[in-house]
Amino acid sequence: FTEEMARREAQRCLQCGCLGLSKCEYRELSIRYRINASRSPSGLRVPVDTSHPFIIVDPNKCVACERCSRTCEHQAIELTTSTEREDMDEVFLRINERCVSCGACVDACPTGALAKKSIMVPLPPGEARHVRTVCTYCGTGCSVNLLVKNGVILEARAESKDPPNNGDLCLKGRFGFSFYRHPDRLTMPLLRKHRDEPFRQVSWDEAIEYVAKEFQRVRERHGPDALGVLSSSRCENESNYLAQKFARAILGTNNIDNCARVCHAPSVSGLRIALGSGAATNPLHEIEGAEVLLVCGSNTTESHPVIGYKVKRAVKKGTRLIVIDPRRTELAAMADLWLNLKPGTNIPLLNAITHEILAKGLENKAFIRERTEGLDELREHLRDFAPDAVESGTGVPADMIRDAARMYAATRRGMILYGLGVTEHRAGTYGVMALANIALVTGNVGRSHAGICPLRGQNNVQGSCDMGALPYVYTGYQDVSDRDKREKLGRAWGCRLPGVPGLTEPQMYEAAVSGRFKGLYCIGYDPLQTQADTGRVKKAFERMDIVVVQDLFLTPTARMAHVVFPAACVYEKDGTYTNAERRIRRIRKAVEPPGQALPDWRIISLLATAMGARWEYAHPGEIMDEVARVTPSMAGVSYERLEDDGLVWPCPDEDHSGTPILHRDAFVRGKGRFTIIPDIPSQEQPDENYPLVLVTGRRLVHYNNGSMTRRCRGLMSLVPGEFLEIHPRDGARLGIRDEETVRVRSRRGSLKVRARLSERVRPGTTFMAFHFPDTLTNILTSPGLDEISLTPEYKVCAVAVDREIVQERQ
Ligand code: SF4
Question: What's the pLDDT at 21?
Answer without folding.
Answer: 46
